[in-house]
Amino acid sequence: MTGYIGRRLLQSVSVLFGVSMVVFALVHLTGDPVRLLAPIGTSHEELAQLRRAHGLDRPLPEQYLKFIGGVTRGDFGKSLRNQQPALGLVVERLPATLRLAAAAMAIALIVAVPIGILSALRRGSIFDHAGMVIALLGQSMPVFWLGVLLILVFVVLIPLFPAGGSQGWQSLVLPAITLGMYNMARTTRVLRSELLEVLGQDYVRTARAKGAPEMRVVLRHALRNSLIPVVTVLALDLAALLAGSVITEQIFAWPGLGRLAVGAIYARDYPVVQAAVFVVATVYVGLNLATDILYVFLNPQVRLT
């Protein structure tokens, strides 16, 4: 186990290094941020002074080496817009995005697990067909369309929730539903498919033949062995929720990391964009490693070699 974790950590470092190179190259292809920072009518000499002040006049390889050196110390530089540490701005917004992602995942699981189990147990029934229709709709509806629809229904027509902001739990409901709908649908379909396969195995029939209660057979024997693909999907979905909350945060004016990143991209604020992407990539890599380790506890037959 220790050797496997060590190898995965080395792989994770190489992945993050690759991410840093790609992000650094892409953000520098977007244009000159100094022209956005400087007021209209700024002379060429003043623009050159601004570039020197921010280190943007140096060759790109030199700028990248300086950037990597700072990353190893946790320093992504200062925001070009407000002259605050870029990592500090990202960490300040990260809890709001984590809260939104956790709420979206909780809603997805609360809905997906019962529907997936009951659909597998009552295959071909009306309940099964209704559950699959819900899952299909959840995977088909675009996030921006669903968010606007929820605002129209539950803010305009039936004023139950606020349209945006982050004041209280009421403001979390609509963005969490919007963000978690796709994950709910995919988890439902994966769990149903895996349970249908496991319920036909010999050890499940043996447990039933011994007179074990049906609920115990389903939860203890079948469900546990169906969770490995589901855990994989959930881990990837949780990381995707962090990276994919940009549209949802824009629709509901949620003060999270995605909204910060969009504003930084428009302003060509290189340090903030790089810090935001690097933090999300780190979370993504960490969740993948944790998922692989969790396999062993879900299924003792899995060996990490």
Structure explained in plain terms:
The protein is mostly helical and 305 residues long. It has a domain at 86-298: MetI-like fold (Orthogonal Bundle). The chain is 76% helix and 0% strand. The protein has helices at residues 2-27, 34-37, 44-54, 60-72, 86-121, 126-140, 143-157, 170-199, 202-209, 214-225, 227-243, 246-251, 257-266, 270-298. Helix 5 (86-121) runs parallel beside helix 14 and helix 11 (227-243) packs antiparallel against helix 14 (270-298).
The outline comes out as flat
CATH architecture label name of the domain at 86-298? Orthogonal Bundle
User: How far apart, in Å, are the first and last alpha carbons?
Assistant: 8 Å
As for the CATH topology of the domain at 86-298, it is MetI-like fold
Count helical runs: 14
Q: How can the largest sheet be summarized? A: none
Helix-strand category: mainly alpha
- Low-pLDDT stretches are none
Oligomer: single chain
CATH class category name of the domain at 86-298: Mainly Alpha
Encode the helix/strand succession as letters. HHHHHHHHHHHHHH
Q: What is the tally of beta strands?
A: 0
Our Rg estimate from Cα atoms comes to 24 Å
